[in-house]
DNA polymerase III subunit chi
Amino acid sequence: MRIEFYVLSSANPVDRLRAACQLAAKGWRHGLPVLLRCTDAAQRDELDELLWRFRAESFIPHNLIDDDANTPVVLALDEAPATEQGLLINLASTISPHVDRFSRVIEIVNQEPALLAACRENFRSYRQRGYDPKRVEL
């Protein structure tokens, strides 16, 4: 499994959601099923709205997992993915309980102190589980 921590230079939560949209679009264009794991329903709804207007020239097919779990880009909280070996974009502060069902995991880190601390803990946890997470500066 490939695990990457994409590190943003800002602390703005909207920048983090925009990065998630860009990465979801890229994953979908490369043929991967994408699951965006959100922190809570409010973040999920904000991300859903952002995906609708993210790029005027192209539509990113997405849906909430309860509405259609087989949409190319799915927004979820802790629900299991409908398909195996896809891309998990984790916006939650903890590791997904279903992490082993993905071939690729991206954690998006910004400079907000509580999130930085949680992501550092996730990085250590992935290593303890035998993975080799990488850091990517954005």
